[in-house]
Design goal:
The chain is of the alpha/beta class. The chain contains 10 helices and 14 strands. The strands form 4 sheets. A 7-stranded parallel sheet has the order 3-2-1-4-5-6-11, with helices on both faces. The radius of gyration is 19 Å and the shape is globular. The relative contact order is 0.13.
């Protein structure tokens, strides 16, 4: 019998790449996905024959519970929610609704419909760790959580609710603390994708040869999104419910160095101009994770080099900008 796999947020950046991965083996799965009524499905238009889409707002518990009663999913990848650290300072209540209330409704829907064998993957975030001293780098799962943005607080709350529902109700919740991941289809509100879009516009003569930037000195642990969704699938198959796992490359990249790589790939001369609007009230200087618990459990390794990720992201924006 085919496994019934449910993806919330399937039309988003990560969800669309997970759909690409799973639909390549659609003979083994029945795929279902939730999209909000106002969401664009442009990123998954090429996969619509592989999945049954359901329109639903996760703020409505009755709707999501009714959907789960009908589908009775074996696996739920909960990818819906807001993911911008920068934008979270201006939209805290929206972040609470999308990330915390939406997740609680998904967890409660699974519990209320009696799907005790349903596994749910909760992709949480390295942002939960917040203010980490250099002595605690690379960051392990045991590192205390000190979130410093509304987004980070929302993900830490999701993380803890996942654990609470496992302990209290036996829900098969697997928690992943995903570090930075990027690639084609990433919205331009995120640093590297924003750089790539600006370069594509410069190449086509759509804007002056100026790149506007925020903090270029920050160091981040980047993984290609296509490697990240492979990690999610392996986590669902091999990781223990109730446990938490870092998923990351365990390698730090300075944002300024990645910008220089993108500029070389674009082969155009630009001026780099600081832009206060692209800065955050609090910006963590160094975020590099320890992935040994996850790799030891799943044998996963990131395969796509950062240069290929940047090239594919630049090519994506070359096709998008007009």
């Amino acid at each position: 019998m085919k496994k019934r796999i449910f993806i919330t947020g399937v039309s988003g950046f990560v969800g669309s790449h997970l759909l690409d991965l799973l639909s390549a083996r659609e003979a083994s799965f029945d795929l279902y996905g939730i999209v909000r009524e106002r969401s664009s499905i442009d990123k998954i238009n090429h996969r619509l024959n592989s999945i049954r889409l359901v329109s639903c707002d996760l703020i409505n518990l009755a709707n999501i519970a009714a959907i789960f009663r009908e589908v009775k999913p074996d696996h739920v990848y909960h990818l819906a929610g807001e993911s911008s650290v920068k934008l979270s300072w201006g939209g805290t209540l929206s972040m609470v609704n999308s990330n915390i209330v939406g997740t609680l409704n998904v967890l409660e829907a699974i519990r209320a419909t009696g799907c005790k064998d349903t596994k749910i993957l909760l992709p949480c975030s390295s942002e939960e760790y917040g203010l980490v001293s250099e002595g605690d780098i690379p960051i392990k799962e045991e590192t205390p959580l000190k979130p410093v943005s509304p987004y980070a607080v929302s993900k830490a709350t999701v993380d803890m609710f996942g654990f609470q529902y496992y302990v209290s109700y036996g829900l098969q919740a697997i928690r992943i603390r995903a570090f930075n991941h990027t690639g084609p289809r990433r919205p331009d509100t995120y640093a590297l994708s924003g750089f790539a879009k600006q370069l594509a516009e410069i190449e086509k003569g759509l804007k002056a040869p100026v790149i506007r930037v925020g903090n270029l000195n920050a160091v981040r642990d980047y993984t290609d999104v296509r490697d990240m969704v492979k990690a999610y699938e392996l986590a669902m198959e091999h990781c223990k419910p109730g446990e938490v796992y870092n998923v990351c490359s365990s390698r730090g990249y300075k944002i300024g160095d990645l910008l220089e790589m993108l500029i070389r790939l674009a082969k155009c001369k630009v001026d780099i101009v600081p832009d206060e609007k692209r800065s955050r009230p609090v910006d963590l200087p160094l975020v590099v994770g320890d992935n040994s618990k996850f790799t030891g459990t799943t044998m996963w390794r990131p395969e796509i080099p950062i240069a290929e990720t940047l090239q594919d992201m630049l090519d994506y924006w070359r096709a998008e900008v007009r």
